Amino acid sequence: GPKMTARDVTVHYGPKKAIDKVSIDVPTDVVTAFIGPSGCGKSTFLRTLNRMNDTVASARVEGDITLDGEDIYATSMDVVQLRARVGMVFQKPNPFPKSIYENIAYGPRIHGLASGKDEMDQIVENSLRRAGLWDEVKDRLSDSGTAMSGGQQQRLCIARAIAVDPEVILMDEPCSALDPIATAKIEELIHELRGRYAIVIVTHNMQQAARVSQRTAFFHLGQLVEYGETS
Ligand code: ADP
Ligand code: ADP
């Protein structure tokens, strides 16, 4: 079955309805693009998939969202664990103001994924390799994660998400702050990660959706108006 499901999901910010009865499946074998004009609710809906809106006091979520069949809004859900299983990459690259190594090691340390330094080094190396960044940074892991180009910072953020062994990676307009060459690298990376992780990418760019996704969800005024194979 699908990695995630959403059924009749409605999201309010106070009296404002930002998402209206949206239902989708997020499979692992294809990349899903959320597309639509600014303000149509793409980002809101993406954020409900890992409870990122929990911190917005006015936000209220109705409907059912599952991860491997488990209700992610159940009171028994460990939200810290959920956000490792469902990783998020933002529009503006946001590495921690720490070393490249520490950007990757932080999550695995919190989640107890490495039993010693060798294992942590391996996680750091593997995560950076999967994000296509290892060869560029292997000789300067002590440099600050914020001292790299925008495209490298965004790949570092993808590596940071990968480091805690996620099942789903949510990307909210991950290329809109990047130049065309850095954008092409991220798009190439999404192709390489496809199948290993369930990937959802929010974009307002139809051409990008066509390049990176196999399934598209079109949003308009908070509603899912079209959903199917990317054409
Ligand atoms: P998109 O990602 O498609 O641009 P958003 O999900 O950001 O759309 O926004 C959907 C609607 O919800 C918009 O009308 C926006 O103004 C509103 N909205 C988004 N975030 C908040 C918030 N924190 N509080 C109140 N309204 C919000
Ligand atoms: P420091 O506290 O020394 O500044 P950093 O957080 O900057 O440490 O991270 C540097 C770390 O990267 C060191 O612990 C070092 O052992 C580790 N390291 C160096 N080379 C490699 C490598 N090839 N693979 C994995 N880890 C490495």
From TrEMBL:
One of its GO terms (molecular function) is ATP hydrolysis activity. One of its GO terms (cellular component) is membrane. One of its GO terms (biological process) is phosphate ion transmembrane transport. It comes from the Bacteria. The keyword Transport applies. Keywords: ATP-binding, Nucleotide-binding, Phosphate transport, Transport. Residues 4-231 form the ABC transporter domain. The keyword Protein transport does not apply. SUPFAM superfamilies: P-loop containing nucleoside triphosphate hydrolases. PANTHER family: ABC TRANSPORTER I FAMILY MEMBER 17. NCBIfam families: 3a0107s01c2. This is Phosphate ABC transporter ATP-binding protein. It comes from Sphingomonas sanxanigenens DSM 19645 = NX02.
